[in-house]
Design goal:
about 240 residues; alpha+beta; two-stranded antiparallel ribbon; five-stranded mixed β-sheet; about 35% helix
């Protein structure tokens, strides 16, 4: 046949049909993923379980450091008060009848940058008088330990040890020259457990016996509590 003949058509060469695609590789991939993903999740769970205690410990260490800084600020405020008035503040103030009015924590407010609150408190009336109660519910950051679980506003775990042999003896202030054992050997303030917390404005602290024999062994810091000495040093006790 002539290729020039318009009535003649060439049949294209035979084209083999493509073989059906295999799904074996996809099935293997799905099975592998089904096995690997739970294993990965299990490994992640184990890692989280291992890391969580370390993270919690690091957070508590940071909170304990903040607590130590709070006590440092309080101690410096007490020393600045002594420098200004030539004596430490009394553990509490009293009226003419000897009734307790205010805590030492109220008296040092100007020295922890809280003078605006101090100026509004009526020092001639008790801390829980209706005139003063609104201030008692305020949260003073320096008086709040970040590790202590507080259930009421205005509570603090920072207290003085009130004793005739200490710096805080009661309503009578103590001069620096009366600290005969040396400031580095004399306790100034301490933490207490959260269930011993007091209202920061209240004239309530603890006795030496309570300090030496606390009613509870629990503490919001694992292993002990922060204390401050009269020379300004803060230690973990």
């Amino acid at each position: 046949m002539s290729s020039g003949d318009p009535n003649v058509y060439f049949t294209p060469p035979f084209q083999p049909q493509p073989s059906p695609k295999s799904n074996t590789g996809l099935i293997v991939l799905i099975v592998a993923a089904a096995v690997a993903v739970p294993m990965m999740l299990a490994c992640i769970g184990v890692l989280v379980g291992l890391l969580l205690p370390a993270v919690q410990a690091a957070r508590e260490a940071a909170r304990r450091m903040q607590c130590s800084n709070n006590e440092k600020q309080i101690t410096l405020a007490l020393l600045n008060y002594e420098s200004a008035y030539k004596s430490y503040p009394p553990a509490y103030t009293v009226d003419a009848q000897g009734n307790r009015l205010h805590s030492w924590r109220t008296l040092i407010l100007p020295f922890i940058e809280q003078k605006a609150i101090y100026d509004q408190i009526d020092l001639d009336k008790p801390w829980d008088d209706p005139v003063n109660l609104p201030f008692a519910a305020l949260e003073i950051p320096t008086y709040v330990c970040p590790s202590a679980p507080m259930t009421k506003p205005g509570m603090t775990t920072y207290v003085a040890v009130v004793d005739p042999s200490g710096i805080f003896t009661g309503p009578v202030p103590t001069r620096m020259d009366q600290v005969t054992d040396g400031t580095s050997n004399t306790l100034l303030i301490t933490e207490v457990a959260a269930d011993q917390a007091v209202q920061w404005m209240s004239p309530n602290d603890i006795t030496l016996d309570v300090f030496l024999n606390p009613p509870t062994t629990e503490s919001h810091h694992p292993g002990g509590r922060n204390i401050a000495k009269a020379d300004g040093a803060v230690l973990f006790y």
